[in-house]
Amino acid sequence: MSPGQIIILNGAPRSGKSSIAVAIQETLEGVWMNLGVDAYAHVTPPRLRPGIGLRPGGERPDLEAFVPLLYAGLYDAVAAHSRLGLNVVADVGHHDAYSRPLNILLECARRLAGLPVLFVGVRCPIEEILRRRAAGGADTTYVVGTDDDPVPLPVRRWQEEVHRPGIYDLEVDTSALSPEACAATIRQRLVAGPEPTAFQALARLRAG
Q1: Residue 132's closest CA among 23, 8, 19?
Q2: pLDDT over 90 at 151, yes or no
Q3: Element holding 6 (H helix, E strand)
Q4: Domain residues of the chain, as ranges?
Q5: Which of 8-12, 21-25, 150-154 has the lowest average pLDDT?
């Protein structure tokens, strides 16, 4: 059995990753399982939340011992689905701005060794991120700008840290493309090539 295709969408909160994941499920051929930060939040014990969604800044060192384990569990689940022939799209927000470096992305890349992975950077200008946060309405989980603090520090940290080291197979800008257009761009990359190599390159990087 051929392994299923894996697409990892990496970007800041409100950059549009979840919408792209849904568009991939709806428009790309085959069966696509949606595993990522939102889905994983439902199975993470409340005392460990936000789990893999822990934001940059080293604000919760008490949770950091669990974050690599949670990521390992998620990526092992992604690998298991792929080995069964199921396609997987996973939206995440990788960064290494904890109270100390954890090198989680490099380890996650090693866990998918030998499997077909397309690593997609989901970009969005901070102005649009702030607009989407403000438009969230009753959703209080997102920090929003105010007159006194128009660009809150947590938002700036996400924007600065989530795309390090910036090794991708493909990047999309959700301020310029709809989720469906992003999905179509991803599909074209899978069809036309070249062969994705970003996760292979990340797996070879040395921690530290």
Answers
A1: 19
A2: no
A3: strand 6-10
A4: 6-204
A5: 150-154
Binding residues: 11-18
Residues across the chain: 208
C-alpha span between 74 and 80 (Å, rounded): 10
Q: Which of 38, 62, 76, 149 is catalytic?
A: 38
Which position has the higher pLDDT, 1 or 173? 173
Tokens (6 digits) for 195: 């062969």
Query: What's the CA gap between 80 and 65, in Å, rounded?
Result: 24
- Give the whole-angstrom CA distance, residue 59 versus residue 21: 29
* Backbone φ and ψ of 118, nearest 5°: -110, 120
Enumerate the known binding-site residues for ATP.
Answer: 11-18
d(CA 66, CA 187): 34
Q: Check residue 115 and report its DSSP letter.
A: S
> What's the CA gap between 198 and 196, in Å, rounded?
6
Which of 182, 186, 122 is closest to 158 using CA atoms?
A: 122
Q: Residue 22 corresponds to which amino acid?
A: V
Residue range 6-204 forms a domain whose CATH class is alpha beta
CA pair distance 25, 146, nearest whole angstrom: 36
Instruction: Please state the φ and ψ torsions of residue 50, each to the nearest 5 degrees.
Output: -85, 10
Q: Residue 184 contacts by C-beta under 8 Å, 6 or more apart in sequence?
A: 27
Told to judge if 38 belongs to the known catalytic residues of this protein, a careful annotator would answer yes
